[in-house]
Amino acid sequence: MILTPLYRLPSRRYFLLAIVFFLLSTHELFAQGSPYEFIGFGTPVVSQSARLEAIACSGVALTDGRMINDLNPAAWSMLTRSRIEVKLNFFYDKSDLGSDEGIKRLIKFSGASFGTLLSDKYNLGFAFGFSPISNAVAEVNQLDSLGTTTYTREGGLSQLYIGLSARPISALNIGARADFLFGNLRSIGQADVSRGVETVPGLFQREYSMTGTRGTFGFLLTLDSLVQELRGLTIAGAYSLGSNLNSIQRTHVTPINSALDSTIEHTGYGYYPPLIRLGLATRFGDRYRAEVDITGQDFSNSTYYSLTKPIVADPQLGTSNRYSIGIERLPMMGDESKGVPFWERVGLRIGASYAVLPFNPLSLTATASRVSVSEISFTAGLGMPMNTESVFDFSLGLGLRSPSIANSAPKELFFKMGASISLSEKWFVPLRRDDD
């Protein structure tokens, strides 16, 4: 009985839209995770590097060659030696709307990368890796007189990337990479009807698989190479093109009588929007630096699935902007750290950011009205050197998401902890020829 209206939805394109509106307008709910992750591609991921997370992801203009910068490929020509990086994150999210409350805890592998300097003479850097672009993991349980219905969202969008960076003149670094986008978004509705006897839960599952490509381009302009008085001042930018997605929709229905299972598949289209990042950084002394970044992305013309082309955009998505600032004391590594006490060698980081997220859900307090969702967060972290050039980075983040109209959509408190390790030891030093 509960599955019938889902199965007979007249428009497959707006299945998720109907689910989200239903979830946000129902008051007998027990949730796990952010209800906003039922919308669109889920929550955008800025960076999964624990070092960049500790400075609120303000790293577009970072010129330190002891990390693989996933925000700006132009920084790869700054690499001092080959590096391998692996990243892990822990998420805690608490959302509430009136008496309804949800908590999500999630440990997630967050990417890996390899980078090296191919040529000292031409400052040619190379890197490839894997990283997530969005997270979409949430669950809501609806309780009523008939039983329990569980709505689940799983998946997200990820990328494999490979690219090069060069320094044509002493003040300018340029870089480009190819991004191969792929991912799955799965929406599940499971109805467990309780009528005094045990029953087999009915299941409705709709899954979208997406693939696409895009290019990302970046530059770094170190102004002190042009004017000595501008010591440590760097301007940088990175731009990712929009990506046309090939999307496949699969609908699987398992009613209480499992003999009536059915699967329906449709081919469609999607679009992931372009992304622009701008950064301005400066240094104080030999170890301290500060950076301010601005990020912009317009999701209002995007969707992960449209049955027709040109695509029909997701009405719950809009423009997203992020403003971040970070300050750090750089870690001391290699020869410069010899004879220095451990805690003097450790890097220290703090940051803060404000963002308008791409979510525009329907308001619960005004008919046919949409609200925007903002996010404010504070971050901190450590960078602990290990052996010659390896480093362990650790980050903490605390933030709040709020709708533009109070009580019109869920309010969230979230906590994030990240860890990444960057390995680079003597065996990663490239062989040199006499003509280099």
How would you summarize what this structure contains?
With 436 residues, the protein is mainly beta. 5% of the residues lie in helices and 56% in strands.
Q: How would you describe the overall organization of this protein?
A:
This protein has helices at residues 4-7, 15-24, 50-54, 342-345, and strands spanning 29-32, 43-44, 83-97, 100-119, 124-132, 134-135, 138-144, 147-169, 172-193, 202-222, 234-240, 243-254, 262-272, 275-284, 288-298, 303-306, 319-329, 347-356, 373-386, 390-403, 411-423. The protein is mainly beta and 436 residues long. The strands form two sheets. It has a 14-stranded antiparallel barrel with strand order 3-4-5-8-9-10-11-14-15-17-18-19-20-21. A two-stranded antiparallel ribbon has the order 2-6. Strand 7 (138-144) and strand 8 form a beta hairpin.
